[in-house]
Amino acid sequence: MQYDPIKRTLGKVFNKTPGLRKLFYRLLDLLLLRAWYVKREIKVSLKDHKKQVKILDAGSGFGQYTYFLYRRFPAGEIEGVDVKEEQIEDCTRFFSNIDPDQRVRFSVQDLTRFVQPETYDFILCVDVMEHIEEDEKVFLNYYRSLKPGGLLLISTPSDQGGSDVHDHEGESFIEEHVRDGYNMADIREKLGKAGFSHIEAYYSYGKPGQIAWKLSMKFPIMMLNASRLLFILLPFYYLVAYPVAFILNSVDVHNSHKTGTGLIVKAWK
């Protein structure tokens, strides 16, 4: 099943104007439960932080979270890096239209090699580490790039069915993943090995979130994989499915879970 080609196609449609791209970000924020968790953690963890915060969006992708951080910290400096040149070009083009002060910049970077010693107050890494084989190198680079006391926030699939894999023989729903998800103890150990002094982790995407993800993401993508013509039916589908998914996401994000298909990890230098 192809997820990333569908994602790229939608990105091209909404990349035609800055207004459409902002609409795209808004739709992603509504549909993706991980955005609910990530934005909550940013608001809570950085609520007392100085305004002139320096931030790295590591694996910035479409720039969804870069845009949120840009609006959240009016005096902040934000750097977005990604290995995909076309996404960096799209983000650079978009922010050149909305960022007159040039507080945001983007560059093509390999996170296994990218290090900016003691530069950032905050590093955000959303659905990136499951794509990188040499993850311990990246964790070490994050540690080196943070200022003392700096925070790393990671959102990633867990080994409890992340990437929609539920047994050892299953294949990931996301073709580009090199691992289906992290074991909580494993990612804690790797971050500790990199040097992080304090680590917190908890499960996201409990049962309510898993059902919501199927309703809001998996089933529509399956439809579009069957035929792009079904795109015209999506608004009608979401009129019925999204209110249910919204309620389930709300339940998920306001409760703790003994297990879940996602992990939220915070690590301080």
| DSSP summary, beta strand count | 7
Classify the helix fraction into a percent range: 40-55%
Q: How would you sum up the global shape?
A: globular
Strand-residue proportion:
15-25%
CATH architecture tag = 3-Layer(aba) Sandwich
N-to-C SSE string, H for helix and E for strand:
HHHEHEHEEHEHEHHE
CATH class: Alpha Beta
Mean pLDDT figure: 89
> Main β-sheet: number of strands, strand sense, barrel status?
7 strands, mixed
Q: Going across the major beta sheet, what is the strand order?
A: 3-2-1-4-5-7-6
Structural class: alpha/beta
Which radius of gyration do the C-alpha atoms yield? 18 Å
CATH homologous superfamily identity: Vaccinia Virus protein VP39
pLDDT < 50 stretches: 165-172
CATH level 3 topology:
Rossmann fold
Distance between the termini: 39 Å
Alpha plus pi helix count: 9
The domain count comes to 1
Describe the structure.
The structure is a single chain. The protein is of the alpha/beta class and 269 residues long. The chain has a single domain, classed as Rossmann fold (3-Layer(aba) Sandwich). Helix content is 45%, strand content 18%. The protein contains nine helices and seven strands. It has helices at residues 4-13, 18-31, 33-45, 64-72, 85-98, 135-145, 184-194, 207-226, 234-253, and strands at 54-58, 77-82, 104-108, 120-126, 146-157, 198-204, 262-268. It has a seven-stranded mixed β-sheet with strand order 3-2-1-4-5-7-6, with helices on both faces. Helix 6 (135-145) links the parallel strand 4 (120-126) and strand 5. It is globular, with a radius of gyration of 18 Å. It starts with a helix and ends with a strand.
